[in-house]
Amino acid sequence: AQSVSQHNHHVILSEAASLELGCNYSYGGTVNLFWYVQYPGQHLQLLLKYFSGDPLVKGIKGFEAEFIKSKFSFNLRKPSVQWSDTAEYFCAVTPRMGYSSASKIIFGSGTRLSIRP
Amino acid sequence: EAQVTQNPRYLITVTGKKLTVTCSQNMNHEYMSWYRQDPGLGLRQIYYSMNVEVTDKGDVPEGYKVSRKEKRNFPLILESPSPNQTSLYFCASSLGGREYNEQFFGPGTRLTVL
Do B45 and A104 touch (CB under 8 A)? Predict the structure, then answer.
């Protein structure tokens, strides 16, 4: 079965530290990849997405992610975090299956990021 | 303003009392979906709809119903709620079509079933 794994459930960092959140998926075919962020008390918002092309994707607020096909990974990175990055981060995958690709999105269990001022 | 709205935002009810959570989007999106978010489990898809009158089950459809009579609305119906349906519910919409597009999420509905 298709699945998305986020191994870090809770990450605590100090401001200005570098961040890397892991995301691995299990699916043998072509996929679209996403990172969503959920700030406290708010709904999910898209951080960045990868469909094809350059495997290093830049998103909003200084975030980036690298798709490594051989490792089935799409890790999220930020060189220097801020207190305002405190949030929950979700990796998501959609298997690309033509017209029906919009029907199935699989989310990871999320990583809670806490930034110490 | 382009948005997805949900009502109510908070609901406390009792076992067996039918309820409906409404979802509406103003972006003319074809695709709409319902998720529940539970600690440690991320978001799990309940039902989705590719267009008007076209709905299908997601990963956790048991105990839920949906309908899509109009493009903008996609209500979630719990005919006989049970305590295990206590959760945070999100509605989302996207353009759909051949290429997957970003899903836009509503603000969430926190449901407690006693």
Answer: yes
